[in-house]
């Protein structure tokens, strides 16, 4: 155990500059979540906030700034004072909106900080639909184009993109109904307002276990640890991957010393054993990456998302 701790300390020392000229932070740091309370982003942020006072010696205050498929929250962070006291959480939505919406925040106004982890989509149906498999789901759509009403977020949000990817990949048509955030989308599925959803598994695992919804498959390379009984699309003979991600970022212009200090503090928090254990219990997959790797990931993912949007007909000429 002591050897493992020593190794982790050595690895962190190799990644981060250990000396910072000023004491920072000296007051609470705001973490802006661009979606309503109750979703996966919010779960991750609030768990981080529980560990922040010990990891950062200051509180981490979670603020939900919602609207416009996540764009409002991203704009809020980009416009914040570049003093290191405002940090944002983002994923695929920020990339998509930067391409789809001329009024959205360009990515070059944001400074990548730390990668948190991936978030694969799953396909779930209401228990009363009678649909038992992905094959039956696709057969129904082929027989009745638009015959399945799917709940998702607004165009540019990840679950909307995942639903569009599914349509494009399997040459089918859904009737897509947008909701403001994941929590109301889950409620719509439970009430029968929609027949299916394309959402992260942690939001649906309890309802699946209780028999209230049926998880048909996870769009990832491997099964999700939170619902190991749910097979991947690939296991069922369908080549389909749709993953979102979590990362932290800053507005451009934060002083280098403060940026580096935040990178170190958040990276250490995300690698804390207690945090990782609780995150796993919530169904969150945490695979932290430092700033350089995060920036590289964002650049690659931006190219992939642009191709997906173009292929799905979500980009205007």
UniProtKB/TrEMBL annotation:
The keyword Coiled coil does not apply. It comes from the Bacteria. InterPro entries: BUG, Bug_dom1. SUPFAM superfamilies: Periplasmic binding protein-like II (SSF53850). Residues 1-21 form the signal peptide. Keywords: Signal. Belongs to the UPF0065 (bug) family. This is Tripartite tricarboxylate transporter substrate binding protein.
């Amino acid at each position: 155990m002591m050897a493992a701790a020593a190794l982790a300390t050595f690895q962190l020392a190799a990644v981060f500059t250990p000396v910072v000229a000023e004491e920072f932070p000296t007051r609470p740091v705001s973490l802006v979540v661009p979606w309503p309370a109750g979703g996966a982003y919010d779960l991750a942020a609030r768990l981080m906030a529980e560990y922040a006072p010990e990891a950062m010696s200051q509180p981490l205050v979670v603020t939900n700034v919602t609207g416009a498929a996540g764009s409002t929250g991203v704009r809020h962070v980009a416009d914040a004072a570049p003093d290191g006291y405002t940090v944002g959480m983002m994923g695929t939505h920020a990339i998509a909106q930067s391409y789809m919406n001329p009024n959205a925040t360009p990515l070059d106004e944001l400074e990548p900080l730390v990668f948190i982890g991936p978030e694969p989509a799953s396909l779930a149906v209401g228990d009363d639909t009678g649909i038992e498999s992905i094959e039956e789901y696709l057969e129904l759509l082929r027989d009745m184009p638009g015959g399945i009403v799917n709940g998702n977020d607004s165009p540019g949000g990840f679950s909307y993109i995942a639903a569009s990817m599914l349509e494009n990949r399997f040459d089918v048509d859904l009737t897509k109904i947008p909701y403001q955030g994941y929590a109301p989308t889950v409620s719509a599925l439970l009430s029968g307002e929609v027949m299916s959803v394309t959402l992260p598994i942690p939001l649906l695992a309890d309802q699946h276990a209780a028999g209230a919804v049926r998880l048909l498959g996870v769009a990832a390379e491997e099964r999700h640890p939170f619902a190991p009984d749910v097979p991947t699309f690939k296991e069922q003979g369908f080549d389909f991957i749709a993953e979102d991600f979590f990362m932290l970022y800053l507005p451009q212009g934060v002083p280098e010393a403060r940026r580096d200090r935040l990178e170190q503090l958040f990276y250490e928090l995300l690698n804390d054993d207690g945090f990782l254990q609780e995150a796993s219990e919530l169904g969150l997959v945490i695979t932290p990456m430092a700033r350089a790797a995060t920036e590289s990931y964002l650049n690659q993912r931006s190219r992939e998302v642009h191709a997906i949007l173009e292929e799905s007909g979500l980009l205007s000429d």
